[in-house]
Structure formats: C-alpha cells, structure tokens
Amino acid sequence: xxxxxxxxxxLENLIGNxxxxxxxxxxxxxxxxxxxxxxxSSVSAHGDEAEIASLDASNNISIHLHERDRTALxxxxxxxxxxxxxxxxxxxxxxEMIAARRLQARPFTALCIDCMEEQESHSNIxx
Length: 127
Description:
Layout: H1 3-41, H2 49-85, H3 100-105, H4 113-125
Helix pairs in contact: 1-2
C-alpha cells in the first residue's frame, strides 16, 4: 500500500468515526427534544410568585437550549448529507479540505479554521 492509499484509508476511517459521532449526537438531541416537548406540555403555572418566577426562568433556559440544539441538529444533518454525497470535509468558503483535527473537534463544521477566523473578524467589525 502506497502513501496515498494509506492517507485515503485513514480519511475513510476518520469519516466513518465522525459519522458515528454525528449520528450519536443527532440521536441525543432528538431524545432531548422529546423530553423538552413533554416537559413543556406538563408545565403549569400554579403556586406563589416565587415559584412561578423560578419556573419561568427555568422555562426560558430550556427554550434557549432547545433552540441551540435545533441549530446543531441542522448542522449535523448538513454534515451527514455531505458524507453521503462525498463532499464532507471541504470548506464551504474556499473549497480547501478542512484539517482532520478541526473535523475531530467539530465534526459538523462547514469552514476551515482560516475562513472561520476571517468570518469572525468581519462580524466583529460590525458589532
């Protein structure tokens, strides 16, 4: 086996492992989503003002976390689609391959580190 074949095999193994991780994260988010919906349907506003305020604060945090999970779920679905069509690991901005270490850290990232830093620096200018 030559070096190129070894790199391709390593990449295939990495993608396989990342796909498993993405599917696990997806299942976890979907389970939390079902729990969130059940929690929301069982919430009642009975009790004194302190209990209601505490329940309201807890509810706001739950909604925020649920929205964050929905965003992550969308990114996971996109990454799984890219794995299926063979474009996984390619930066959406510059087209270069995203470093394996970045993919391991954030398996559903769409940008290489350089493009992410550039995007963040542009967004900081307008804040």
